[in-house]
Write a structure and sequence with these properties.
Length: 444
Protein backbone atom coordinates (compact mmCIF):
# COMPACT_ATOMS: atom_id res chain seq x y z
CA UNK A 1 0.00 0.00 0.00
CA UNK A 2 1.37 3.40 -0.98
CA UNK A 3 -0.89 5.73 0.93
CA UNK A 4 -3.46 5.78 3.74
CA UNK A 5 -5.63 8.90 3.92
CA UNK A 6 -7.00 9.37 7.43
CA UNK A 7 -9.86 11.76 8.10
CA UNK A 8 -13.53 12.37 8.72
CA UNK A 9 -15.87 10.08 6.80
CA UNK A 10 -19.59 10.57 7.40
CA UNK A 11 -22.55 8.88 5.73
CA UNK A 12 -24.11 10.94 2.93
CA UNK A 13 -21.45 13.67 3.22
CA UNK A 14 -18.71 14.30 0.68
CA UNK A 15 -15.19 14.84 2.02
CA UNK A 16 -13.82 16.87 -0.87
CA UNK A 17 -10.34 17.26 0.60
CA UNK A 18 -9.63 13.55 1.01
CA UNK A 19 -11.15 12.76 -2.37
CA UNK A 20 -8.96 15.35 -4.11
CA UNK A 21 -5.85 13.84 -2.51
CA UNK A 22 -6.92 10.30 -3.44
CA UNK A 23 -7.46 11.33 -7.07
CA UNK A 24 -4.08 13.06 -7.24
CA UNK A 25 -2.30 9.96 -5.91
CA UNK A 26 -4.19 7.68 -8.31
CA UNK A 27 -3.35 9.91 -11.28
CA UNK A 28 0.34 9.53 -10.37
CA UNK A 29 -0.01 5.74 -10.26
CA UNK A 30 -0.17 5.21 -6.49
CA UNK A 31 -2.70 3.06 -4.65
CA UNK A 32 -4.41 4.37 -1.53
CA UNK A 33 -7.02 3.57 1.08
CA UNK A 34 -9.28 5.87 3.12
CA UNK A 35 -9.31 5.30 6.89
CA UNK A 36 -12.26 6.87 8.74
CA UNK A 37 -11.23 8.90 11.77
CA UNK A 38 -13.44 11.35 13.66
CA UNK A 39 -11.65 11.43 17.01
CA UNK A 40 -11.20 9.34 20.12
CA UNK A 41 -13.94 6.84 19.30
CA UNK A 42 -12.11 5.77 16.13
CA UNK A 43 -8.60 5.75 17.58
CA UNK A 44 -8.08 2.01 18.10
CA UNK A 45 -9.73 0.92 14.86
CA UNK A 46 -7.78 3.45 12.79
CA UNK A 47 -4.44 2.49 14.36
CA UNK A 48 -5.09 -1.23 13.83
CA UNK A 49 -5.96 -0.72 10.20
CA UNK A 50 -2.95 1.46 9.41
CA UNK A 51 -0.58 -0.97 11.15
CA UNK A 52 -2.14 -3.83 9.19
CA UNK A 53 -1.93 -2.06 5.81
CA UNK A 54 1.57 -0.61 6.37
CA UNK A 55 1.29 2.26 3.87
CA UNK A 56 4.54 3.98 2.89
CA UNK A 57 2.89 7.35 3.61
CA UNK A 58 0.10 8.11 6.07
CA UNK A 59 -1.72 11.37 5.36
CA UNK A 60 -3.69 12.67 8.35
CA UNK A 61 -6.32 15.40 8.03
CA UNK A 62 -6.50 17.70 11.08
CA UNK A 63 -9.16 20.30 10.39
CA UNK A 64 -10.14 21.45 13.87
CA UNK A 65 -8.75 22.03 17.35
CA UNK A 66 -11.28 19.55 18.71
CA UNK A 67 -9.73 16.59 16.87
CA UNK A 68 -6.07 17.68 17.15
CA UNK A 69 -5.16 15.88 20.38
CA UNK A 70 -6.81 12.66 19.26
CA UNK A 71 -5.12 12.90 15.85
CA UNK A 72 -1.63 13.35 17.29
CA UNK A 73 -2.31 10.57 19.79
CA UNK A 74 -3.05 8.36 16.78
CA UNK A 75 0.37 9.19 15.33
CA UNK A 76 2.08 8.48 18.66
CA UNK A 77 0.33 5.12 18.95
CA UNK A 78 1.37 4.23 15.40
CA UNK A 79 5.01 4.92 16.25
CA UNK A 80 4.80 2.90 19.47
CA UNK A 81 3.41 -0.05 17.50
CA UNK A 82 6.30 0.03 15.08
CA UNK A 83 4.96 1.99 12.13
CA UNK A 84 7.97 3.37 10.24
CA UNK A 85 6.29 5.05 7.26
CA UNK A 86 6.21 8.78 6.65
CA UNK A 87 3.41 10.66 8.45
CA UNK A 88 2.25 13.95 6.93
CA UNK A 89 -0.53 16.16 8.29
CA UNK A 90 -2.72 18.60 6.42
CA UNK A 91 -5.92 20.54 6.92
CA UNK A 92 -6.90 23.84 8.48
CA UNK A 93 -5.49 23.22 11.96
CA UNK A 94 -2.27 21.81 10.53
CA UNK A 95 -1.80 24.86 8.30
CA UNK A 96 -1.98 27.22 11.28
CA UNK A 97 0.03 25.06 13.69
CA UNK A 98 2.67 23.44 11.43
CA UNK A 99 5.75 24.16 13.52
CA UNK A 100 4.07 23.16 16.80
CA UNK A 101 2.97 19.84 15.32
CA UNK A 102 6.47 19.03 14.13
CA UNK A 103 8.07 20.11 17.39
CA UNK A 104 5.77 17.82 19.38
CA UNK A 105 6.85 14.27 20.24
CA UNK A 106 3.97 12.67 18.33
CA UNK A 107 6.14 11.49 15.44
CA UNK A 108 4.91 13.61 12.51
CA UNK A 109 7.44 13.97 9.69
CA UNK A 110 5.88 16.78 7.64
CA UNK A 111 2.98 19.19 7.42
CA UNK A 112 1.45 20.54 4.21
CA UNK A 113 -0.03 24.03 4.39
CA UNK A 114 -3.05 24.75 2.17
CA UNK A 115 -3.53 22.59 -0.95
CA UNK A 116 -1.75 19.27 -0.54
CA UNK A 117 -2.10 17.38 -3.81
CA UNK A 118 1.29 18.25 -5.32
CA UNK A 119 3.22 17.90 -2.06
CA UNK A 120 1.59 14.56 -1.22
CA UNK A 121 2.43 13.08 -4.62
CA UNK A 122 5.98 14.35 -4.18
CA UNK A 123 6.25 12.65 -0.79
CA UNK A 124 5.10 9.37 -2.31
CA UNK A 125 8.16 9.51 -4.55
CA UNK A 126 10.43 9.19 -1.47
CA UNK A 127 12.32 12.43 -2.20
CA UNK A 128 15.61 13.68 -0.80
CA UNK A 129 15.74 16.72 1.47
CA UNK A 130 16.52 18.91 -1.54
CA UNK A 131 13.47 17.55 -3.36
CA UNK A 132 11.32 18.03 -0.25
CA UNK A 133 12.39 21.66 -0.12
CA UNK A 134 10.90 22.17 -3.59
CA UNK A 135 7.43 20.90 -2.64
CA UNK A 136 4.81 23.66 -2.23
CA UNK A 137 3.53 24.32 1.27
CA UNK A 138 5.67 21.64 2.91
CA UNK A 139 7.13 22.11 6.38
CA UNK A 140 9.30 19.15 7.37
CA UNK A 141 12.02 17.88 9.63
CA UNK A 142 15.17 17.42 7.60
CA UNK A 143 17.56 14.55 8.20
CA UNK A 144 19.66 16.98 10.24
CA UNK A 145 16.73 17.37 12.64
CA UNK A 146 16.08 21.01 11.77
CA UNK A 147 12.68 22.26 10.65
CA UNK A 148 12.68 23.37 7.05
CA UNK A 149 10.12 25.12 4.84
CA UNK A 150 9.59 24.09 1.24
CA UNK A 151 8.33 26.21 -1.62
CA UNK A 152 5.50 28.74 -1.22
CA UNK A 153 2.15 27.09 -0.52
CA UNK A 154 -0.57 26.91 -3.13
CA UNK A 155 -4.30 27.16 -2.63
CA UNK A 156 -6.41 25.76 -5.43
CA UNK A 157 -10.13 25.83 -5.93
CA UNK A 158 -11.77 22.44 -5.56
CA UNK A 159 -12.40 20.39 -8.68
CA UNK A 160 -15.00 17.64 -8.41
CA UNK A 161 -14.21 14.12 -9.57
CA UNK A 162 -16.41 11.18 -10.55
CA UNK A 163 -18.16 8.96 -8.06
CA UNK A 164 -21.61 8.41 -6.58
CA UNK A 165 -23.40 11.27 -4.89
CA UNK A 166 -24.98 11.08 -1.45
CA UNK A 167 -28.74 10.60 -1.38
CA UNK A 168 -31.02 12.62 0.89
CA UNK A 169 -34.76 11.99 1.14
CA UNK A 170 -34.40 9.87 -1.98
CA UNK A 171 -32.85 12.74 -3.94
CA UNK A 172 -29.31 13.14 -5.22
CA UNK A 173 -27.44 15.63 -3.02
CA UNK A 174 -24.15 17.35 -3.84
CA UNK A 175 -21.87 19.40 -1.59
CA UNK A 176 -20.47 22.38 -3.48
CA UNK A 177 -17.18 24.17 -2.75
CA UNK A 178 -16.84 27.16 -5.08
CA UNK A 179 -14.59 29.54 -3.15
CA UNK A 180 -11.37 29.64 -1.17
CA UNK A 181 -10.36 31.80 1.77
CA UNK A 182 -12.30 34.79 3.06
CA UNK A 183 -12.32 38.46 2.13
CA UNK A 184 -13.30 39.50 5.66
CA UNK A 185 -11.07 39.94 8.70
CA UNK A 186 -13.25 38.96 11.65
CA UNK A 187 -11.02 38.93 14.72
CA UNK A 188 -12.14 35.57 16.12
CA UNK A 189 -12.00 33.60 12.85
CA UNK A 190 -9.13 31.25 11.98
CA UNK A 191 -10.25 31.27 8.32
CA UNK A 192 -9.36 34.96 8.27
CA UNK A 193 -6.03 34.05 9.85
CA UNK A 194 -5.33 31.42 7.21
CA UNK A 195 -6.32 33.86 4.48
CA UNK A 196 -3.86 36.41 5.86
CA UNK A 197 -1.14 33.74 5.98
CA UNK A 198 -1.80 32.88 2.35
CA UNK A 199 -1.80 36.55 1.34
CA UNK A 200 1.77 36.82 2.64
CA UNK A 201 2.80 34.56 -0.26
CA UNK A 202 1.25 36.98 -2.78
CA UNK A 203 -1.91 34.91 -3.29
CA UNK A 204 -5.41 36.33 -3.06
CA UNK A 205 -7.13 36.31 0.34
CA UNK A 206 -10.35 35.19 -1.31
CA UNK A 207 -11.24 33.63 -4.63
CA UNK A 208 -14.59 32.49 -6.00
CA UNK A 209 -15.17 30.57 -9.20
CA UNK A 210 -16.86 32.41 -12.05
CA UNK A 211 -20.65 32.25 -12.15
CA UNK A 212 -20.59 30.37 -15.45
CA UNK A 213 -18.33 27.71 -13.93
CA UNK A 214 -20.66 27.34 -10.93
CA UNK A 215 -23.68 27.06 -13.23
CA UNK A 216 -21.84 24.50 -15.39
CA UNK A 217 -21.08 22.29 -12.39
CA UNK A 218 -24.64 22.42 -11.06
CA UNK A 219 -26.05 21.73 -14.53
CA UNK A 220 -23.74 18.73 -14.99
CA UNK A 221 -24.73 17.34 -11.60
CA UNK A 222 -28.41 17.93 -12.39
CA UNK A 223 -28.44 16.34 -15.83
CA UNK A 224 -25.75 13.66 -15.66
CA UNK A 225 -25.98 12.63 -12.01
CA UNK A 226 -29.58 13.58 -11.13
CA UNK A 227 -28.66 15.87 -8.24
CA UNK A 228 -31.54 17.95 -6.96
CA UNK A 229 -30.21 19.18 -3.61
CA UNK A 230 -27.09 21.35 -3.35
CA UNK A 231 -25.22 22.42 -0.22
CA UNK A 232 -22.76 25.28 -0.47
CA UNK A 233 -20.07 24.34 2.04
CA UNK A 234 -18.26 27.69 1.70
CA UNK A 235 -18.01 30.02 4.70
CA UNK A 236 -18.94 33.02 2.54
CA UNK A 237 -19.96 32.27 -1.02
CA UNK A 238 -22.09 35.42 -1.38
CA UNK A 239 -20.76 38.92 -1.95
CA UNK A 240 -21.00 41.06 1.18
CA UNK A 241 -23.27 43.85 -0.08
CA UNK A 242 -26.95 42.83 -0.21
CA UNK A 243 -27.39 44.30 -3.71
CA UNK A 244 -24.41 42.28 -4.96
CA UNK A 245 -25.70 39.13 -3.23
CA UNK A 246 -29.03 39.63 -5.00
CA UNK A 247 -27.29 40.12 -8.36
CA UNK A 248 -25.24 36.95 -7.75
CA UNK A 249 -28.41 34.94 -7.06
CA UNK A 250 -30.29 36.33 -10.09
CA UNK A 251 -27.35 35.76 -12.43
CA UNK A 252 -26.89 32.19 -11.22
CA UNK A 253 -30.61 31.54 -11.63
CA UNK A 254 -30.49 32.84 -15.21
CA UNK A 255 -27.42 30.72 -15.94
CA UNK A 256 -29.11 27.59 -14.60
CA UNK A 257 -32.27 28.27 -16.61
CA UNK A 258 -30.21 28.68 -19.78
CA UNK A 259 -28.66 25.27 -19.08
CA UNK A 260 -32.03 23.57 -18.65
CA UNK A 261 -31.77 23.07 -14.90
CA UNK A 262 -35.18 22.50 -13.33
CA UNK A 263 -36.34 22.97 -9.76
CA UNK A 264 -33.59 22.45 -7.20
CA UNK A 265 -33.03 23.22 -3.52
CA UNK A 266 -30.07 24.99 -1.91
CA UNK A 267 -28.58 25.30 1.55
CA UNK A 268 -25.84 27.77 2.49
CA UNK A 269 -24.14 29.84 5.14
CA UNK A 270 -24.44 33.60 4.83
CA UNK A 271 -23.70 36.76 6.75
CA UNK A 272 -26.61 38.58 8.35
CA UNK A 273 -25.58 41.88 6.78
CA UNK A 274 -25.79 40.35 3.28
CA UNK A 275 -29.58 40.01 3.65
CA UNK A 276 -32.13 42.63 2.74
CA UNK A 277 -35.52 42.42 1.04
CA UNK A 278 -33.98 42.20 -2.43
CA UNK A 279 -31.36 39.55 -1.66
CA UNK A 280 -33.76 37.44 0.45
CA UNK A 281 -36.24 37.36 -2.44
CA UNK A 282 -33.55 36.55 -5.02
CA UNK A 283 -32.09 33.73 -2.91
CA UNK A 284 -35.54 32.25 -2.32
CA UNK A 285 -36.31 32.36 -6.04
CA UNK A 286 -33.00 30.60 -6.72
CA UNK A 287 -34.02 27.77 -4.43
CA UNK A 288 -32.58 28.56 -1.00
CA UNK A 289 -34.51 26.51 1.56
CA UNK A 290 -32.19 26.53 4.57
CA UNK A 291 -29.57 28.98 5.84
CA UNK A 292 -27.09 29.27 8.68
CA UNK A 293 -26.97 33.02 9.37
CA UNK A 294 -23.73 34.38 10.81
CA UNK A 295 -24.72 37.09 13.28
CA UNK A 296 -22.08 36.57 15.99
CA UNK A 297 -22.78 39.75 17.96
CA UNK A 298 -26.00 41.56 18.81
CA UNK A 299 -24.62 44.83 20.17
CA UNK A 300 -22.23 47.44 18.79
CA UNK A 301 -19.65 46.66 21.50
CA UNK A 302 -19.60 42.92 20.78
CA UNK A 303 -19.43 43.43 17.04
CA UNK A 304 -16.47 45.79 17.44
CA UNK A 305 -14.77 43.15 19.59
CA UNK A 306 -15.16 40.67 16.74
CA UNK A 307 -13.94 43.08 14.07
CA UNK A 308 -17.38 43.21 12.48
CA UNK A 309 -18.98 46.39 11.10
CA UNK A 310 -22.52 45.06 10.83
CA UNK A 311 -25.62 46.82 12.13
CA UNK A 312 -26.55 45.29 15.53
CA UNK A 313 -30.08 44.78 14.18
CA UNK A 314 -28.86 42.87 11.09
CA UNK A 315 -29.42 39.46 12.67
CA UNK A 316 -33.06 39.96 13.63
CA UNK A 317 -33.76 41.63 10.28
CA UNK A 318 -32.14 38.83 8.27
CA UNK A 319 -34.01 36.10 10.14
CA UNK A 320 -37.33 37.91 9.61
CA UNK A 321 -36.76 38.52 5.90
CA UNK A 322 -35.63 34.96 5.21
CA UNK A 323 -38.66 33.59 7.06
CA UNK A 324 -40.99 35.84 5.07
CA UNK A 325 -39.54 34.37 1.87
CA UNK A 326 -39.92 30.77 3.01
CA UNK A 327 -36.29 30.11 4.00
CA UNK A 328 -35.87 28.15 7.22
CA UNK A 329 -32.87 29.55 9.09
CA UNK A 330 -30.81 29.29 12.24
CA UNK A 331 -28.50 32.01 13.53
CA UNK A 332 -25.53 31.98 15.88
CA UNK A 333 -24.49 34.01 18.90
CA UNK A 334 -20.94 34.19 20.26
CA UNK A 335 -21.85 35.27 23.76
CA UNK A 336 -18.97 34.35 26.08
CA UNK A 337 -15.24 35.03 25.61
CA UNK A 338 -12.17 35.91 27.68
CA UNK A 339 -12.33 39.66 27.06
CA UNK A 340 -16.14 40.04 27.18
CA UNK A 341 -17.20 42.33 29.98
CA UNK A 342 -20.15 41.53 32.18
CA UNK A 343 -21.53 44.98 31.48
CA UNK A 344 -21.78 44.09 27.77
CA UNK A 345 -23.91 40.99 28.30
CA UNK A 346 -27.12 42.90 28.94
CA UNK A 347 -27.05 44.47 25.47
CA UNK A 348 -26.32 41.07 23.93
CA UNK A 349 -29.30 39.48 25.68
CA UNK A 350 -31.55 42.34 24.55
CA UNK A 351 -30.42 41.70 20.98
CA UNK A 352 -31.01 37.96 21.32
CA UNK A 353 -34.55 38.67 22.54
CA UNK A 354 -35.32 40.27 19.17
CA UNK A 355 -34.74 36.96 17.33
CA UNK A 356 -38.20 35.50 16.77
CA UNK A 357 -38.02 33.71 13.41
CA UNK A 358 -35.69 30.79 14.13
CA UNK A 359 -33.50 29.10 16.74
CA UNK A 360 -30.25 30.58 18.04
CA UNK A 361 -27.11 28.43 18.17
CA UNK A 362 -25.47 29.73 21.33
CA UNK A 363 -21.69 29.31 21.23
CA UNK A 364 -18.68 30.42 23.25
CA UNK A 365 -15.92 32.21 21.37
CA UNK A 366 -13.38 29.59 20.33
CA UNK A 367 -10.02 31.34 20.69
CA UNK A 368 -8.16 29.73 17.78
CA UNK A 369 -4.53 30.11 16.81
CA UNK A 370 -4.12 32.29 13.76
CA UNK A 371 -6.90 34.68 14.73
CA UNK A 372 -6.44 38.27 15.89
CA UNK A 373 -8.58 37.51 18.94
CA UNK A 374 -6.12 34.78 19.94
CA UNK A 375 -3.28 37.27 19.72
CA UNK A 376 -5.24 39.77 21.83
CA UNK A 377 -6.08 37.21 24.53
CA UNK A 378 -2.48 35.95 24.53
CA UNK A 379 -1.09 39.46 25.02
CA UNK A 380 -3.38 39.87 28.01
CA UNK A 381 -2.14 36.60 29.52
CA UNK A 382 -5.50 34.85 29.26
CA UNK A 383 -4.46 31.75 27.27
CA UNK A 384 -3.26 28.59 29.01
CA UNK A 385 -2.34 25.10 27.84
CA UNK A 386 -0.72 23.92 24.63
CA UNK A 387 -1.62 24.10 20.95
CA UNK A 388 -3.61 20.84 21.11
CA UNK A 389 -5.75 21.95 24.03
CA UNK A 390 -5.96 25.61 24.92
CA UNK A 391 -7.95 27.01 27.80
CA UNK A 392 -8.70 30.66 28.42
CA UNK A 393 -9.34 32.62 31.58
CA UNK A 394 -11.75 35.55 31.83
CA UNK A 395 -10.73 39.12 32.58
CA UNK A 396 -14.10 39.68 34.25
CA UNK A 397 -14.92 37.17 37.00
CA UNK A 398 -18.64 37.85 36.59
CA UNK A 399 -18.47 36.87 32.90
CA UNK A 400 -16.71 33.67 34.01
CA UNK A 401 -19.66 32.79 36.24
CA UNK A 402 -22.08 33.40 33.38
CA UNK A 403 -19.86 31.24 31.16
CA UNK A 404 -20.05 28.34 33.61
CA UNK A 405 -23.83 28.62 33.66
CA UNK A 406 -24.05 28.69 29.87
CA UNK A 407 -21.68 25.72 29.53
CA UNK A 408 -23.90 23.75 31.91
CA UNK A 409 -26.70 23.76 29.31
CA UNK A 410 -25.69 20.84 27.05
CA UNK A 411 -28.74 21.11 24.83
CA UNK A 412 -27.44 24.49 23.73
CA UNK A 413 -23.74 23.80 23.34
CA UNK A 414 -23.10 20.17 22.45
CA UNK A 415 -22.49 19.16 18.85
CA UNK A 416 -25.91 17.53 18.57
CA UNK A 417 -27.63 20.49 20.19
CA UNK A 418 -31.27 21.44 19.92
CA UNK A 419 -30.57 24.28 17.43
CA UNK A 420 -28.54 21.98 15.19
CA UNK A 421 -31.26 19.34 15.41
CA UNK A 422 -33.75 21.98 14.29
CA UNK A 423 -31.36 22.99 11.52
CA UNK A 424 -31.38 19.40 10.26
CA UNK A 425 -35.17 19.36 10.48
CA UNK A 426 -35.31 22.61 8.48
CA UNK A 427 -33.21 20.94 5.78
CA UNK A 428 -35.73 18.12 5.41
CA UNK A 429 -38.77 20.38 5.57
CA UNK A 430 -37.30 22.84 3.07
CA UNK A 431 -36.42 20.13 0.56
CA UNK A 432 -39.84 18.51 0.89
CA UNK A 433 -41.66 21.81 0.51
CA UNK A 434 -39.75 22.76 -2.63
CA UNK A 435 -39.16 19.46 -4.40
CA UNK A 436 -41.77 16.93 -3.31
CA UNK A 437 -45.09 17.35 -5.07
CA UNK A 438 -48.01 17.16 -2.67
CA UNK A 439 -45.86 17.37 0.45
CA UNK A 440 -47.94 18.74 3.31
CA UNK A 441 -45.40 20.97 5.02
CA UNK A 442 -46.94 23.73 7.08
CA UNK A 443 -45.39 26.11 9.58
CA UNK A 444 -47.02 26.27 12.98
Amino acid sequence: MDLALVGLVLPHVENHSIEALRRAAAAAGYCSSIVPFSGWADLDSAVRRIVRERPRVCGLSIQTTEVALAALSLVRMLRLRGYEGRVVCGGHFSTLNAESILESRAGVDAVVRFSGEEALVGLLGEPSDDALAALPGLVFRARSGALQHGAAPRATLFSRGPGPLPVHLGLGAADLVVSRGCEHRCAYCCVAGASSLLAQTGALRYERRALDAIADEIADLFHARRARVFNFMDDNVLPSAPSEAAAFARSLQAGLAARGVGRIAFSMQLRADAVDEESAAALSDLGLVRAYVGVDGYSAAQLRRFGRKADPDAGARAMRLLAEHGVLAICNALLIGPTVRFSDLGAELEGLARISHGPVHLLPIDVRAGSRYFELASRRGLIEGSFVHRHYRFEDARTARVGRAVAAMPTRLEERSVPIGLYDLAYNLGIARRLVDGAAVAER
